[in-house]
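#lab-general

N.A. 3:47 PM
ok so I finally got the sequence cleaned up, no stray characters, all 394 residues accounted for. can someone with queue access submit it? mine expired

B.Y. 3:52 PM
send it over

N.A. 3:53 PM
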Amino acid sequence: MPGRILYLNGLTSSGKSTAAKCLAKLCRTPLFRSSNDIFHDMIASKFYAGHFWREIARTIGAQYAAVRGMAEAGFDVIVDGMGLDLPEYKSLFGLCHLDLVEKTFAGLDVTFVRFDCPAEELRRRNLLRGDRGEFQSEEQARLNDPAFPADLVIDAMTTFPDEAARKILAFAGFPVDEDAFAPEADEFRASILGGFLGDLADVRPACPKNAGRRKLVPDGPAPVSADAVLHSPDAADAAADALILRGYREIPAKGIRLFMRGERDFCRVLMAPPDDLTSLLGRTVEVTIDRPADSRHPEHPDLVYPIPYGFLAGTLAPDGEPIDAYCPGFANAPVCTGIVAAVIRREDDEEGKLIVTPPTPPDAHPAPADLWEAVRFTEQYYRSSLILPKEDPR
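B.Y. 4:20 PM
back already:
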């Protein structure tokens, strides 16, 4: 029985090549990828000099013949291509591009998928890639055949490549293997978001250590899939605009800017913490309490917290979670607002912590011994030291 063909048609940087990789990974049955670039690279670049479009058309013709051969042998194949109407097709094959496609694949099951993306976005992606000319996609668009078929159209501006792959597989009736993609889904999503946000932010998968911190989404248990850590506070609005262009919507969240696509795809926009937490000494901060006094450590149930313990929402510490804070002197409450009285520096751990105490008169500093005693229940297991405000005379 002949194999089926999925023909992906899109301009450079429209995302079809990444979608093709996702198709191959998500499909339960083998899908072979055949791209224009693979065939272009089969001959030395010197042969393109002076005859660029002729050699492009010739190698694509060879690609189509190879794809047909694979399909006739029973293999399902993805064609990563472009519907360019080059005059060179007629001079080489006696047919325009579309006629060549229809003749070559006649009698086979072909699904045509078009990837649409605005020219401005394609220019931005080309520059970000560094291996494409800024206006390369626009040059291709002038050669594009508007009559080239499209059984399915993908909005490449608001559809991530893995989402495009799922849509294509469902449309064409291929079985999906979600488990194959799950182990790297967060990392993949973060890498795509990083390309969207460019130099505005570093994007990393959100992998908090405990379930409590995964529930930062209001009224739902869905985990945050990515954190966008801004390069500067001034980039917040530009990052928000970039996310909204890609189909995200901002939803209310206390202490952070939170964006959502669909029902379970969330991105937090955060500010990186200062390189030295001591710059927070003496500042007023708001601590979200996730381990109230008398609660047990989620990983070490023998450890009971004698004081409230929480985190500064909207920050990101080196361990991939928000900056943590002990809150001695506070009663249990969802949020504690106080003064950073000390910073804990651990010689055997990259993560620093804050000690936040209730507001006091400027000259009433908590005694270092009292601060240490308040946090000794955990810090005794580390090589920890207290850093106090410089103006503290003790």
